[in-house]
Write a structure and sequence with these properties.
By secondary structure, this protein is mainly α. It is built from seven helices and two strands; from the N terminus they run ββααααααα. The protein has a single domain, classed as Orthogonal Bundle (Tetracycline Repressor, domain 2), CATH 1.10.357.10.
């Protein structure tokens, strides 16, 4: 992945913003991960192609492959991002809950909401076709359970 060696200036109305190339790189990768998550959660993983992703994000396949080695890498990174964000939400709930019962109620509601937005085939596709990403989900589940049972174990 080659970084541009120049700094680009964007004029937005009369304000000039200078974005270093690394920031642009990060923003593009985040945009891709966010868009991919939407597609995968809605349609499942196996049914979405790299062409579909590029079309949905209005970018070229070359851009996708500049940021991710292949679809498996993209799925792994999307899983990492999704699970990290989810775990942070659970931690925030644990910190603001008044007691264990309230924490359990709030985390359960959060999990229910997450599961309502995940196409059932996502977990099947992960387990069957993307074992590296599937292991992330298993580790996440274990981490959440351990954190719930023993809050000092983080």
């Amino acid at each position: 992945m080659a970084l541009k060696e120049t700094v680009e200036t964007l004029d937005i109305d009369t304000v000039s913003i200078v974005l270093p190339p690394i920031m642009e790189e990060f923003e593009t990768k985040e945009k891709i991960l966010d868009g991919v998550e939407v597609l995968f959660m809605k349609f499942g993983i196996r049914s979405v192609t790299m062409d579909d992703i590029a079309r949905h994000l209005a970018i070229s396949k070359k851009t996708l492959y500049q940021h991710f080695a292949d679809k498996d890498d993209l799925i792994y990174k999307m899983s990492e991002s999704f699970l990290e964000r989810t775990f942070k939400r659970y931690q925030e709930i644990a910190e603001r809950a008044k007691n264990s019962i309230e924490e359990l109620r709030l985390v359960s509601g959060c999990m229910k909401e997450d599961m309502e937005h995940i196409n059932p085939s996502v977990l099947f596709d992960l387990e069957k076709y993307h074992p590296k990403a599937w292991n992330l989900w298993i580790e996440h589940k274990t981490k959440v359970i351990e954190k719930s049972v023993n809050p000092q174990h983080s």
